[in-house]
Amino acid sequence: MSAAMVRLENVSRRYGPVRAVEGLSLEVRRGEILALLGPSGCGKTTTLRLLAGFEPPDGGRIEISGRPVAAPGVFVPPERRRTGVVFQDYALFPHLTVRQNVAYGLGREKREARLEAVLRLARLEGLEERMPHELSGGQQQRVALARALAPEPAVVLLDEPFSNLDAALRARVRAEMRRILLAAGTTALFVTHDQEEALSLADRVAVMFEGRVVQSATPEELYERPADRRVAGFVGEANLLPGTAEGERALCALGEVPLREPARGGVELMLRPEQLALEPSPEGEAEVAEREFYGHDQLVRLRLPGGEGLQARLPGSIRLRPGERVRVRALSPAVAFPRPAH
Ligand SMILES: Nc1ncnc2c1ncn2[C@@H]1O[C@H](COP(=O)(O)OP(=O)(O)OP(=O)(O)O)[C@@H](O)[C@H]1O
């Protein structure tokens, strides 16, 4: 396993009575792209600012490349942390050309060779003499990324890097950014509130709620084995059903369902909509309530006899009508959470 390039240990930051970051611990490994994912106001931007050194933490320890940059009695200023920052609005210098923007912050000795390499890496050849206002949003973002990468930082920090781009452009720019970061071999941490962005771009995702990280995992692990119901609902759509676990399986309104991890007693079962298969049957336990057709697939809302709702994601070609009865089967094991206390 590669060493941690960035380490935050029990870091806190308050603004008056607001605990923006509270006991946060997190590691970013050398060469990985980590997404810090959480709802608005959970402290993502504050974490990024603490890492960049724009403000000091109230407590805890931050290390970059094995060196403490913030700890009791230690505070290394931003320009000596070896971090590159890509701001949400890119913050390009409007009166400087693309070349001058990227060259900013490069020492004179290394400048020419490194500048050409970074411009090529970020596919900015041919745009070097343009001014920022003469560029598209995606191109501006590549300039901001090139400027951050130019001094070969230990870690690149990106704040909501796609929020200024329209939806159609986002997926393409995302793949492009991943390609550039991988080619640069850099360690990167980006913050986002968009689960799709986090899952599709990052090697690992850290989910943050109320100032702390509650789970760090690969995108697949996070989606398939969320730590609790809140993470489950934040990283995707989650069906939650009460059940009784008996080791490797559980009993619930769908009958017997296999479990990912053995459990016993009262549990709450989590099944993703695409884990459910439906079969029309007059004796089926569920009734089709609604159907949303998307072409490539469809979302079918079901009602169980106890009144609980369920959602199933199915190929668009399967025809089901509201009012029809269906049998519901789990195609893969459910995750069992402890039953919430009422
Ligand atoms: N300079 C500040 N002064 C006072 N409160 C602040 C300051 N900066 C952030 N906060 C508060 O700290 C909390 C965390 O803010 P932060 O910007 O880190 O969240 P975020 O997860 O990045 O949210 P968003 O996705 O909306 O940008 C919020 O309640 C915010 O209002």
Summarize the structure.
The chain is an alpha+beta fold and 342 residues long.
What is the strand and helix layout of this fold?
Elements: E1 4-15, E2 18-29, E3 33-37, H1 44-52, E4 59-64, E5 67-71, E6 74-75, E7 83-86, H2 98-103, H3 111-121, H4 137-149, E8 155-159, H5 167-184, E9 187-192, H6 195-201, E10 204-209, E11 212-217, H7 219-224, H8 229-234, E12 239-252, E13 255-271, E14 276-280, E15 286-293, E16 297-303, E17 309-315, E18 325-330, E19 335-338
Parallel strand pairs: 3-9, 3-10, 7-8, 8-9
Antiparallel strand pairs: 1-2, 1-4, 4-5, 5-6, 10-11, 12-13, 13-19, 14-18, 15-16, 15-18, 16-17
Helix pairs in contact: 4-5
The structure holds adenosine-5'-triphosphate.
Organism: Rubrobacter xylanophilus (strain DSM 9941 / JCM 11954 / NBRC 16129 / PRD-1)
Pfam families: ABC_tran (PF00005), TOBE_2 (PF08402)
InterPro entries: AAA+_ATPase, ABC_SmlMolc_Importer, ABC_transporter-like_ATP-bd, ABC_transporter-like_CS, Mo/tungstate-bd_C_term_dom, P-loop_NTPase, Transp-assoc_OB_typ2
Number of domains: 2
How would you state the average pLDDT, rounded?
A: 92
**Rg over CA atoms:** 24 Å
Q: Please trace the helix and strand order, writing H or E for each element.
A: EEEHEEEEHHHEHEHEEHHEEEEEEEE
Number of strands: 19
Text of the CATH class of the largest domain: Alpha Beta
Query: So what's the overall shape?
Result: globular
Strand order in the sheet with the most strands: 7-8-9-3-10-11
* Superfamily (CATH H level) name of the largest domain: P-loop containing nucleotide triphosphate hydrolases
The amount of helix comes to 10-25%
Given helix and strand content, the structural type is alpha+beta
Uncertain runs are none
Task: State the CATH architecture of the largest domain.
Answer: 3-Layer(aba) Sandwich
Topology-level CATH name of the largest domain: Rossmann fold
Strand content: 35-45%
